[in-house]
What does this fold into?
Amino acid sequence: AAALHARWADMREKGIPGADLAELEQQWTMSQATIVFGAGGAFWLPGGTEALARWQSETDAIWSRDLNRYRADAVLTEQNLHQALAPETFVQRKSRLDALSQARTPLEFATLRDDWAMEARLVPIDHRIALGASAIATQARQAVQLGIRSDPAADVLARSNAYADLGPLGRMSRAEFLTRSLLSTQKGLQGRLDAATVAQQNLQHAADEISIAALYGIDLSSLQARITHDRELFANALTVAAFDAISADGKDVTANADHAIYVVMSQTHIVSGVTFIYQNHPLSCEEAATSMALTHQGIYVSQDQILNEIGADLRAKSVDAQGRVRWGNPYQTFVGNVNGSESNYTGFGTFYPPLVRVAKAHGANILAYGSMSAATIYARVIAGHPVVAFSTWDWAWHPRRDYLSFDGQWIPWIGPVYASHVYTVVGVSSSQVLVNDPIRGQYWISKGAFEAGYSDFNEAIVFA
It folds into this structure.
């Protein structure tokens, strides 16, 4: 009886509820009154042996019943967790299945059940926390890309990483507060990112306007200093209000730069010191225009010398098997005879690369060349720089009929019906452009006509 009573105590320690053993404990207590104490020992009254046998049987039944119940509960809880974690591979699940096979007592099964039940409850919570942390990490990277140095995300991300290493009880106790922190940080960061993006756009717009003003020769160093200061403030801004203030100043700088440009553009600007030169060959307009532009720097090179230094591809045009016109490459040399004509394919001309090469060889300072807008040409002229512009003879746009050079490059061309022409731009007003035409002399042309003819090629050379 004493050994059986000790077993009940051991069963309670191994997870058998005390209530399941209460009746047996009561019977055992009552049995103590039926023990006869004699000399040298204690003796059960008649019927004691049968009682011990019954208690033993009931004890075994209680153990077996509770062990099976707790095992079944643990198995069911594990299955629920497996579903909550879906898709979960067998390898990921194996540690739990091993724990089930190794458990031996109701307490061990109950512990597994409780842990896994809590894990199942934590699955959606952990998922929300992981998503929140990921979103904040993305926002933090965006902040770095925007140039924001302060990082309010570091603390909450560190706590999120620590949370992932905790057990179920530890995570459950911290989940609510961490979730609130993540939501608050994410909302605050998004507000800052939105405001910072707008501020950066306004600062960039202001900087672009200042750069455009510089093309016109306008000194906006005071406005540039404000932009520099705003960028310093931007890097250390902590609030939406701070970014909004930076954005507002960027808009104000843009407005001031725009006004300065407007004032300059409303005036008439003429580049002085450019000698007018007529072309002395039917197709030497680009060489004559280049000669004119060079005189602004005190460099005098005749159009014939430029032609000699450029060289010429005198091969006649041809038509290939696909019906494509093939001719020389004006981006490399002069194409055809300088005394020929586009209309009959006996001569064409050259584009900006050979002219730039020759001009630089004579010490010229070339500020820009290649593709550029008409607005850029106006700005350069206002800043005091002559521009050699490739356009059409009649100041009208014409559909292109590009041909393929012998070396495989497509060449902008409007011939043979329409002719191209090259001018030196030396003046700009609010509505007109002053050009040195190597054939027709110097005259003003409307900006509309200038832009129409220039749009066929959109290529120019800006001389200092």
